[in-house]
Amino acid sequence: MYNKKEPVFLKNDIPEIWHGKRYYSLDAYFKNTLGHKLNKIAIDAGFTCPNRDGTLDARGCIFCSEGGSGDFAVPFSSIETDEPYIAYFQSYTGTYAPVSQLEQIFGQALADSKVAGISIATRPDCLPKEVLALFGRLKAAYPRKFIWIELGLQTIHEQTALYIRRGYALECFSRAIYELDSLHIPVIVHVILGLPGESESMMLETVEYLGRIPVFGIKLQLLHVLRGTDLAEDYEKGTFSALTMEEYLHILINCLDHLSPNIVVHRVTGDGPKDLLLAPLWSAEKKKVLNALHHRMKLQNSYQGKYWKGGISYASGTSDTL
Ligand code: SF4
User: Fold this and answer.
1) Which residue's alpha carbon is nearest to atom 2 within ligand 1?
2) DSSP label at residue 99
3) Which of 23, 29, 95, 170 has the fewest Cβ atoms surrounding its Cβ within 10 A?
4) Residue 238 has pLDDT above 70, yes or no
5) 71 C-alpha to ligand 1 centroid (Å)
């Protein structure tokens, strides 16, 4: 199933396997490995989160909406599609439940012939040994499907992590990355650009750090200020301002220039619910933002890894990603 192609370089170090984009997008990755694109359907499996249920905190991360960062997610049983897809367990913390319940939920998804693989959004402090052992069992039971883990790191900087109430230290994250890598479980890391108090160089440090550890994918997300969150209160008090589109494109392109080309880029904007979006409002026009990004990258001759100083393998994290 895994059909890794050797990179063929076009001019300006842009490999053919990126299929015309200036970064290694998830669509390109699927074209290279499966021969076709794959949609992701966000699922709400009814989990909660230790950062919301009072175990760590009752308030949640400062930017997190009532929907637990899964505002478009639907129950698995309501999905109707004839196309193969990725079952994305997005809402709240996707491993925060008894192992027997997780086994039933993930097993049911993997057993579905239309599910090509599952992607589970969780926290690095919610991956105990029993959960890791479950992933091992599921991988053995479904060798032709993939299991991905998505971790919301947002930043490597501890002072920002404290402000956003992330609730775990960077060391916890890096330990989880290596434990998952030892099981050949690819990890997608969520990073937020534009967090209050972060300079551009701090954001570059975060993406450069991810190039040095075994990370399969990245979601580069613009900070969205959503109504009803504590972040919205700070925004309305004027303690920080949201990025303009100009600022965001500048930072995003710089981050892509510094990002290891081995990492698959799963997202370069954000998908906040429009009815909750307080700022920045320009981000609701996603197509316009993407067009501007691609246009500007071409004008500047920017491309993922332009300033990357490490090795290039295009191995996508682990050799058995799919
Ligand atoms: S860990 Fe995720 S679900 Fe939990 S509060 Fe933070 S963003 Fe929300």
Assistant:
1) 92
2) H
3) 170
4) yes
5) 12
